[in-house]
Structure formats: C-alpha cells, structure tokens
Amino acid sequence: MKTRTALGATAVVAVALLAAGLLMLQALRQNLTEQVDLQAENLARNIAGQLATGNDFDDLDLDTDQPVQVVDEDGIVRAVSSGLQAIGGTGNDSVDPVPRPDFDDDDDDDGSGGVGSDVRFVDGVALVRGEPGDYRFAAIEAETPGDLEITVFAGASTQIEQAAIGSVRDSLLVGFPVLLVVVAGVTWLVTWRALRPVEGIRRELAAIMHSEDLSRRVPEPQTRDEIGRLADTTNETLAALERSVDRQRRFVADASHELRSPIASLRTQLEVGQAHPELLDLPGAVKDTVRLQTLAADLLLLARLDAGERPVAAGRVELAELVAEQVGERGGERGGADGADGRPVTVTADRLEPVAVPGSAGMLERVLINLLDNAERHAAGRVRAGVRRDGGDAVLEVADDGAGVDAAQRERIFQRFVRLDEARSRDAGGAGLGLAIARDVAERHGGTLTVDAAPEGGALFVLRVPASPADRVPEDEGPL
C-alpha cells in the first residue's frame, strides 16, 4: 500500500508539474515575444518617422546591429541597415538598395508625410555582419512629404527569447525528475510512518489468532486519530470476544456439570432396576428424566437466544390471559407446589388489566412460567401475579412472601447457573437458568426484568415490555 500511495501521489504531482511547466513556458514565451515585438516596433517607427519628416533614404540613421529594410510602394528596396548581408521573411530578399532621385521641391508643395498606426509582425531570418539569426520583424507603413508610400521592416533578435525559454525548459527537464523522486520518497516515508501502527495492529492480531490468547491486546498509538480509534475499537472487540468465549466456556462447563447429576442418577436407577427389578425407583427415574428434559430445553433456548434469535414482531400477546391461564393451572386458591418451608403455596392473581404486547407468545409464557416457578420455590405460602399498564408499557409483576433477595445479590441472580441457595438440593433449587432465560427474553422484546422487595416481604420481579401501539396510554394519563 505504501508503494501504491507513493506512486499515486507522484503521478498526481507529475501531472500537476507538467501542466504548471507548460503554462509557465507559455507565459514566458508570450512575455518575451511582447518585449521583442516592442523593440522591433520602436525601431521601425523611428525609421518611418525619419522618412515622414522629409529625410532622404541616404540620410537615414541605419547604423544599428538590427536588420532594417525600407521598401517603397513598387516593392523596390530603397534602404537597408549597415551590415545587413541577407534577409528573409519580409517578402523581399534583396539587401541592395536602389537609389532614387531626390524628392521634388516645388515651392507650391506644402504636403507633409505621416506614419501609419497599424503594425504587423512577421518571423524571419537575417545575416548581419556575418552572424545569422532568427528575427521578429515589425512592418510599419509611412508616407514621405513627396507622397511616396514606403514600408519599413525592422527586426529584433529572438536569440535572447529562445535562450531564456531553452534555459527554463532545460531546468524543468532536470528539476522535474529530481522533484518527483523527492515527492515519491517523502510520500512513501509519510505513508510508512502513518501505517506503521496499522502494521503493528495486524501483526498482533495475527499473533493472537495463532496463539488463541484473547487476553492480549493490540498496541494503541499515541495519536488520537483514525488509527488510534481503530486500535481502541479492535481492543474493545477483543475484550468482548474474550468475554464471550469465557462465558461460552463457563456455560459448557456448567451445563456439563448440571447434566452429569441427573444422567448419573438415572443411570444408577436403571442399573439397579436391571439387576434388581423390585428395587427400581420408577417415580425417581421419571423425575430425573423430566429434569433432564427441562434442562436440555433450557440449554437449547439459551443457545438460540445467544445466536440472536428474535421474537416474532407480528405477534400480539395478551399478558393478562397468560397470567390467568398459569394461575389457573397452578391451583389458584386451592394451593399448588410446596414452598421453601414445605408448606403448600397459594398462587393468586390480584390485578389483570387487559394489555397486549408485540412478540412471541411462547417466549413470554416461558418468562412467566420461570418467574412463577422461582416464586413458588422461595415463597413461604403465597405467590401473587398481576398485569397493569404504565403509560406506553405493559408491566407484569410476580411477588412472593419468602425471604426475598439481598440488594447486593439482585443482579447476580440473573446470571446463568447462579443459585443463592447452594445449600439446597439441586432437585429443589433448579439449575439456575430460569431467571437468566427470563431476562434474555425480556431484553429481546425491548423490555427489562428487575427484582425488588415485595410488600409481602419476599421478592418482587417486574417485567416491563413496550405495549402494542393500540394499547398504549399517553404518559400524562397514567395507568388505568
């Protein structure tokens, strides 16, 4: 990339320098040509003025190193400058003047000569005192007092112009390659210095890929430019990847540990039943199988959530109906599962406002089931569930009258495989996945799941999910 950048910059500079050089040469040529034209014109007007004031051809001041040729209206050369040996470009190559009789001096002739205002320029050559050269001729017409029309050709050498242009052109031809080499070198050096941190980042990433050590980080340059921000983003990505891999490893280890217990128990019971059929604990085997099936379903759901599975946005779920159905299945006022102290737990619904949310009915039902199961395991005797509207949100609450959750542990309980009651048996305490699944599902529905202290003294879990547009209430109206 450094070489391509240097070559590209050099090419751009070369085109710019070439265009600038051509423009400069053109401007220089035009300026020098104007000076040569002015010099030739001044000489031609001086000679024409002498003739217009009545000077004879023989009396002209033609002692000059510049070529001068005076031609009359018949094309006859009447005068040339001293030292002029050859001329070309004026339309008459003769350098031998033809004498002319003196002007008539009639007493009655009071006419006067004049010099024309128009001037034209032609390129030509001349040989002056043995020195050939290129000249720029100015042609001016004039009229003598004797009414003779003549044309004066006076030349100015273009040797200085050609020398100056040649010198500048040679300098450009020599300087351009040197300048381009300098531009290419400086561009390559600047690009190399600019991209050196990128190369360091690339090498470190390659080393991380080969070593599989995600704890390493790429070097961060001192400058806070785009490359510095790239290094920051790369390190943040590595940190997120490291956390993800660590979480996956812990997940696999915890899942293996959780699966080992029911599988080992089930295998033991089946081996005992095979050897001694009369000792087979069939209810225990069924219980272990159900627990194994539930754990496998939880792991599969977590894997789907980690893969980015989203709820069906087109679905519309009535939370009040879900709560009523689950409370009814758990026995309502008649009591259901045993609580933390072994007494039956009563599950009730005290407030069911009709409100719908967009999403997956299956996932939201799973959240409700996990919250109710958790509340029943920790309740002393009573679990309360309810649904209400709060502005544009639907709020589902599940409370119990158990020991509650310590404030320092309220976020930790939503981590996977975390159980605050480690002293309890795994059969009673569950695998520690229910609340983690519930929070993941809530977040994928654009909501939140938090825990606080319940009025009954236990834990209060609050699921807040945006309601469907048709069920939203303006903020200033409050809940119904």
Brief digest:
The chain has helices at residues 2-52, 159-211, 226-275, 282-306, 319-329, 361-378, 426-429, 434-444; strands at 68-72, 77-80, 84-88, 114-128, 131-143, 149-157, 316-318, 346-352, 356-358, 382-390, 393-400, 448-453, 459-466. By secondary structure, the protein is α+β, with helices and mostly antiparallel strands. Helix 5 (319-329) packs across helix 6.
What does this structure look like?
The chain has helices at 2-52, 159-211, 226-275, 282-306, 319-329, 361-378, 426-429, 434-444, and strands at 68-72, 77-80, 84-88, 114-128, 131-143, 149-157, 316-318, 346-352, 356-358, 382-390, 393-400, 448-453, 459-466. With 480 residues, the protein is α+β, with helices and mostly antiparallel strands. The protein has 3 domains: 2-99 and 113-164; 226-303, Helix Hairpins, CATH 1.10.287; 311-471, Heat Shock Protein 90 (2-Layer Sandwich), CATH 3.30.565.10. The strands form 3 sheets. Strands 2-1-6-5-4-3 form a 6-stranded antiparallel sheet. A 5-stranded mixed sheet has the order 8-10-11-13-12. A two-stranded antiparallel ribbon has the order 7-9. Helix 3 packs antiparallel against helix 4 (282-306) and helix 6 (361-378) packs antiparallel against helix 8 (434-444). The relative contact order is 0.07.
